[in-house]
Write a structure and sequence with these properties.
This protein has 335 residues and is α/β, with parallel strands linked by helices. The chain has helices at 48-70, 89-106, 115-121, 166-176, 184-191, 213-229, 233-264, 279-292, 309-321, and strands spanning 9-13, 18-25, 28-36, 79-85, 110-114, 134-139, 144-151, 154-160, 268-272, 295-297. The protein has 9 helices and 10 strands. Bound molecules: 5'-O-[(R)-(carboxyoxy)(hydroxy)phosphoryl]adenosine (KG4) and zinc ion. The site of 5'-O-[(R)-(carboxyoxy)(hydroxy)phosphoryl]adenosine (KG4) has 19 residues, from α4 and α5.
């Protein structure tokens, strides 16, 4: 197969509840369309069956709009990339089946992308790009990882959560507080107006791993106790409670990241994944960088939560390396 110097890559992401398509060419992200599925709000979490049906409805218009926005036609596509996993099987199947069919029809190569690797490679969409090796804190609704990134596809997870992910910690805390789903962005907003005056205990885990399930329980007990004296405690203190919860989640993340920096002696760090949209965490990681004299990388907001631009970016480096998939590609649910 003759590879192009500047291929037009169409990328598709459908691992959870966002249907996304992006077009990349000559070092530029020409479009990045994301259709979020608001329907899950009423259930307080992602319902897999509902998600895959919604992907089925969204995928064609999303791909179509992404191509139009990029000023490209189907025949311009040199390569189709897709998230192969990890994620929800029903959701992944929609994207993978679509991408396989399109690649077959257009007779162009297919590239499979690992969702977590793509969250890390989101740093390469815009300048300045990180230099290897660097440490990345990948924090989303499903994952919390400290990744030692030695090269584009040479990554080692050196710390992970032993229970809930950081995003889950935000979402579950929000649920206890009566906030909508996903609660992360709502806690972020309230926290900006409050003071972190309530102290929640920090889990004691020896290595670079995380634990967030205890936080949820301590919030629950704390609120129960406060509500015995004042049944309006949550309403009257919502901003301060959110600030306190957010501050504890951030301190847990930063403590382990700092420890990893000392252990692996890197000069650069990054954060990515949905939770990296959190304004408090963004500020904290900048401060950590200043304190430890590190270069800090944070993707643009639209490249933090699930998006196809990061899939296109990862696919570009796979294309350059000649790493292609074929029609036997099947999605996987776990890393
Ligand atoms: O990466 P992502 O879009 O999807 C997964 O792969 O999980 O991450 C979604 C997670 C949710 O838990 C959501 O509450 C959280 O990211 N999130 C935030 C913020 N924006 C999204 N958490 C805290 N603060 C935010 N601003
Ligand atoms: Zn994700």
């Amino acid at each position: 197969m003759k590879l192009k110097e500047n291929p037009v890559i169409l990328a598709i992401e459908s691992s959870c509840d966002d249907t996304s398509a992006a077009v990349f060419e000559s070092g530029k992200m020409l479009s990045n369309l994301i259709a979020t599925q608001a329907i899950h709000e009423q259930y307080g979490g992602v319902v897999p069956e509902v998600a895959s049906r919604a992907h089925q409805e969204h995928i064609l218009p999303v791909v179509d709009t992404a191509l139009k926005k990029a000023g490209k036609k189907l025949n311009d596509i040199d390569c189709v990339a897709v998230t192969a996993g990890p994620g929800l099987m029903g959701s992944l199947l929609v994207g993978v089946t679509f991408a396989k069919s399109l690649a077959l029809c257009l007779d162009v190569p297919l590239i499979d992308v690992h969702h977590m690797e793509a969250h890390v490679l989101a740093h390469f969409i815009d300048d300045p790009q990180p230099k290897f090796p660097f440490l990345n804190l990948t924090v989303s609704g499903g994952h919390t990882q400290i990744v030692l990134v030695k090269d584009f596809f040479d990554m080692k997870v050196v710390g992970t959560t032993i229970d809930d992910a950081a995003g889950e910690a935000f979402d579950k805390s929000g649920k206890i507080l009566g906030l909508g789903y996903p609660a992360g962005p709502l806690i972020d907003k309230h926290a900006a107006l409050g003071v972190a005056k309530f102290s929640f205990p920090e889990p004691q885990i020896a290595n670079l791993d995380f634990s967030f399930s205890g936080l949820k329980t301590s919030i629950l007990y704390f609120l129960k106790e406060q509500q015995l004296a004042n049944k309006d405690f949550i309403n009257e203190n919502l901003d301060d409670i959110c600030a306190s919860v957010q501050s504890r989640i951030i301190s847990i993340l930063i403590k382990k990241l700092t420890r990893a920096v000392r252990q692996y002696k890197v000069d650069e760090i990054g954060i990515s994944g949905g939770v990296s949209a959190n304004s408090g965490l963004r500020k904290a990681i900048m401060e950590t960088g200043e304190k430890l004299n590190l270069r800090v990388h944070i993707p643009k907001f639209e490249y933090c939560t699930d998006n196809a631009a990061m899939i296109a970016m990862a696919a570009y480096y796979k294309y350059k390396a000649g790493l292609f998939a074929d029609q036997a590609l099947v999605p996987f649910t776990r890393s």
